Amino acid sequence: MTYALPVLPVPLRPLTTQADLQYHAAPGGGIFNPPSATHMGFWSINPYVGCAFGCAYCYARDTHRYTLERAGPIGEAVAASLPPWQAFERRVLVKEHAGARVREALRSSRSPKPGDSLVIGSATDPYQPAERRFGVTRDVLQALGVVRELSIVIITKSPLVTRDIPLLQRLAEHNRMAVHVSLITVDHELARRIEPRAPTPQARLRGIRRLAESGVEVSVNCMPILPGITDAPEQLSALVQQVAETGAQSLGACALRLRAASRRRYLPVIREQFPALASRYESTYRDSAYARESYRTGLRDAMQKLCDRNGLRFRVYGYDENEREEIQEINTELHISTNQLNLFG
Predict the structure, then answer these.
(1) Which residues are CB-contacts of 42 (< 8 A; sequence separation ≥ 6)?
(2) For 112-135, what is each residue's pLDDT tens digit?
(3) How many beta carbons lie within 10 A of that of residue 340, not counting itself?
(4) CA 42 to CA 9: how far, in whole Å?
C-alpha cells in the first residue's frame, strides 16, 4: 500500500483554544529525530512541541523556543506578550498527520532500523491534555505497528497512556516495548506546588498498576529528585514502596539538573514556594547544571538500597565527558553510604 504524505498548510496556524491554552499546527519536517541530530544514543519522536503540564523543573523548554525562532515573524506572533517559559506551557504545537509522516519515513533511511532504540516523549509529554483532542501519539503508535526488533520507550506522566494498552501489547509482540512513568513524589499537596497541572501521584500509580497488570513492561522515572524538597529519606522510601506495590519492574532516579532554560522558570518558583532554600539553590547551581557529585552519588546509593529492599531493579543513569545525561543504563558500583545523603552534598 502506498501512503501519500499530506501537504501541510501554513505552519503555526491556530487549531483551537481552551481557556488560556492555545494549540497551533507545528511546522512541517521529519517526524523521527536521529541520534546524529540530538547527540543521544537513540532515535526519538515528540508528537507535540511544548507541554501543558508545565512542570517547573522541565529541561525541555528550549525546544519550543527554538521552533518558534526558526519560524520567524509567525513564531514571534504565536508567543507575543508571553515569556518563553510561559509560551512553552500555554502555546502547544501539534504535529499533524504524524502517522503518515512515520509511514513515509519508514520507507526511507530517515528512521530507526532493527536493533535501534526509539524514545517517544524525550522533550514533551506524549500524553499531555492535547492527546485527548488530537490523538497524535496514538496515530504514531498505529503507524509503528509494522516495525520489528526495536527497543521502544514511552516517557509520560499521564495515566492516559493506559488508553493505548492494546497498541502497546501489539508492539510488544515484535519489539521490546516499555513505558516509563515519571513520578517524583507521592505527596499530593507537594506535587500540586511543583507540578500544578500534571496528573496527581495517585492517578499515576493507578496507571502504572493497570499497565503492569496488562503485561506491559513499566518502569518509573523518579526524575528529577529535588534537593531539599523531595529527597528526604522518608519521602523516597514511601515512593519506592508504593511503586513496588503497583507491579512496576524497575525504577530510575537522578538529581535535578538545572540548565539555563529551566533555571529561569525553576528558581522563581523556589523563591516563591520554598524561600528558605532559594539562596542554597542559587549557590549550588550557579556554576553548574548539576548538584555536587557527592550528593548525586549518595542519592544513587540510597535509591539502590531502597529498590533492593522493595524488589525493584534500579536503573542508574550516568554522564559522559560533558556531563550529558544518557538514556542508556550503566552498571556502577556505589560506595557512598546512605548517611552521606545530605542537602546539596
Answers:
(1) 35, 116, 117, 118, 119, 122, 327
(2) 999 999 999 999 999 999 999 999
(3) 15
(4) 30
pLDDT at 277: 97
**Location of C-alpha cell 519521602:** 235
SS3 content of the chain, % helix, strand, coil (to 5): 40, 15, 40
Name the residue type at position 247.
Answer: G
Distance (Å) of CA 24 to CA 70, 97, 146, 307, 312: 15, 14, 29, 42, 41
Listed residue (229, 216, 333) closest to 277, CA to CA: 229
Phi-psi region of 50 (alpha: psi -120 to 50; beta: other; left: phi over 0): left
Q: How far is CA 156 from CA 76, 123, 141, 198, 203, in A?
A: 29, 10, 14, 10, 12
Residue with cell 504524505: 5
Residue type, 64: H
Q: Are 153 and 178 in contact (CB under 8 A)?
A: yes
Please provide residue 18's backbone torsions phi and psi, each rounded to the nearest 5 degrees.
-135, 105
Percent over 90 (pLDDT), the chain: 75
Question: Going by C-beta distance under 8 Å and a sequence separation of 6 or more, which residues neighbour residue 192?
Answer: none
In degrees, rounded to 5, the angle at the alpha carbon of residue 135 between the alpha carbons of residues 133 and 140 is 165
CB neighbour list of residue 308: distance below 8 Å, 6 or more residues apart? 314
* Cell numbers for 341: 545523603
Structural domain boundaries in the chain: 225-345
Of 327, 291, 345, 335, give the one whose Cα is nearest residue 43.
Answer: 327
